[in-house]
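Give me structure tokens for this 122-residue protein.
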Amino acid sequence: MVRPSAGWRGGGAVIYLLLAAMALTSSSGAQRRMGRWWRRVHLLGLSALWLAFFAAYAGRLFVREQFLTGLIFTPVVLLILAVRLYALARRRVTAPTRSPPPPQTRSARSRPAAAPVPPCGN
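Here you go.
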């Protein structure tokens, strides 16, 4: 059995902390309060999780007794990661851009709105 080095254990601890942050911020209230940071935290956490899966299965390729497991699941994880990256890239390309509202002129801001004209009594 191959034991992970201290660096890998530390990386695993960081991934667990990211997963805990994702769990704590999964409510709609937390999502509203965090704004765009909510998405960033969750994308980072999921990316770290997939990296951990990849590292775990790719590491099995170098252990004789676990080679078959690594040979089967490393490409599966890579395929899932490729699909996720493709979807993310496609969303960024097709996402509508928000244009800023047209600037108001100084005269339009200083004047009150005009009163509606009453209809003619013919």
